[in-house]
Amino acid sequence: MGALSVVFVLFVMATASGRLPAGYRHRLYQGPPPGCAHTCRMDKQELGAFLRSRRERLRPQDVGLPSGPRRRTPGLRREEVAVLAHISTEYYIRLEQGRAPRPSGDVLSAIAGALRLTDAESDHLHVLAGTAPNRTGLHRRDVRPSILALLERLPQTAGLVMSAAFEVLAWNDLAAALMEDFAPLAPEDRNLARRAFPGPQRADARLYGLSDAAEFRLGVVMRLRATLARYPTDPAVTGLVGELRDASPDFARLWERHDVQTTPMLTKTFRHPAVGEVTVDCDTLTLTDRDQYLVLYTAPPGSPSAEALALLNVLGAQASHYTP
């Protein structure tokens, strides 16, 4: 029997049993890598809005300036930021108004220091200005075969791979049992951002009983803002952000904060319909070569949550939150 025939037989057997081999489960996204479309694009409007949002959150005393008389607007004045960054007031005003030419790396570093930006915010500033290292125009959805194999070899660990746009690209059996079986879903329904902000079209969507759903939603918004800055011409990213802003007032409100600093979520509690509460350690590893995230959920050995995960391993995906 030839190699192709063997593969076909395995596929038919797996389909009949209701479980697909790991190599087939993730094919909805496993296309070739996107073609290169390098750009040094400066997003003037987003850059100006980001600078304004960071300036308005600071008080004079935060940067060693006297508070002085009552101010008409919150935060620092534009001229104060310019003085602190050692640049002209006129140029800084034009930056916030989206009318200035691209600033140099030194000017951006000076502005970041004046506004007391975190490392993540400073990186975001460089991305908006077009001075960060170039990326391809589209975010990647093809997962390395070695990562797919790793997911299948992790004992007592629920694992998944997520794209920069919160698409679930790959997962193992325990992740399907803990969350849901993503295999039958259309690509747009595998997106965790849509799960977090369902809108009227998906009003019945639940976020797997997460105890920290509000924190997760905030993290989604912050990461998506950073993703949009890296992939401003990717229709999948721009379309997702536009859809969520229109469909969810909560998303729109959080989006206008221009936050990009995320707080690591070290533990999560899932309220599972079959095994009750499952509290897991949450480790997120960045796959830098493809701008993806490997998310691993584990529980301390011997704990009730470890026993629950072991039971879910036996029950399989039919015990998940969703049965499409």
From TrEMBL:
Domain (HTH cro/C1-type): residue spans on this chain: 75-122
Among CDD domains, the record links this protein to: HTH_XRE
> According to the lineage, what is the superkingdom?
Bacteria
Q: Return the protein name.
A: Transcriptional regulator
